[in-house]
């Protein structure tokens, strides 16, 4: 029996280390992708295959770890969902990676993941800010997007540069939770100024500004009150993330006159969601494919319309469960991370992908542990 227990412990340790390696490689995928596209474009397809292999290896991590009967049942349900996703919305790898991240959260330490993510963001940013000027990556300077010129060097999009710097700020705030000082905000203000002058990623800039306010609030009030505030804020962020597209789309479809005098980025996101909804005559249990002329930017419209009702139920449950458990266990740091991700989800959706962030690992943390 002791030997069996030791074997299980060893398997868990190996599987967790394996996940950390995979997470680092996923974080380095886009720098590698950009480098290969610029230097040897004939091998572009092989680089995409490398990404798909990394996602498949997440399943190996899940198999390696010690799983209960309930864990195995959950995995089977998720794999079946991924299979049906391939049949209906043609987005197997993205939904597969996200669902496997939920299962991969077993036996992980959030602090180690956040620290690893910080290293990934620093390395990515250093590569993206230097290699384009050496001719080793495509340099995107003064690109006209969204009615304004934006510079985002070698990131795939201006908002992806914004997401990287937002995660840098989140990671630093999380890791300095025991040593936080008021002057930490100088670095966060620097991120905002850099983004404003380059990528002009307004979502990331606004959330980093929120991060500064919350950082100062955490210094001014005691831990018990701050925890209660974060429970309130995170719950509110979830309702906003769900409610803005839900109420917005309902009003746009039934009372379009309300929006006659308003024209903005958020409205365009709601319009695109409504257009996709109308084109497919509602929701699908396994979702609908996204074509070149389609765009779903917000988290819940993307998941519910593209990935389908089944995926929406799973991810919504995971979010609610994570908030409740973090509140019960007084895990204020977890609530902080969830808050920023949910606010980001009000207008963006990239953070759900394993190649962009650890959001799905947070959602699976309490389910799998």
Give the C-alpha Rg.
21 Å
Q: What is the CA–CA distance across the termini? A: 22 Å
Order of helices and strands: HHHHHHEEHHHHHHHHH
Proportion of residues in helical segments: over 70%
Q: Overall 3D geometry?
A: globular
Extended strand count: 2
Which structural class matches the secondary elements?
Answer: mainly alpha
Which regions contain 5 or more consecutive residues with pLDDT less than 50?
A: none
Strand order of the largest sheet: 1-2
Q: Can you give a write-up of this model?
A:
71% of the residues lie in helices and 2% in strands. With 369 residues, the protein is mainly α. Strands 1-2 form a two-stranded antiparallel sheet. Strand 1 and strand 2 form a beta hairpin. It starts with a helix and ends with a helix.
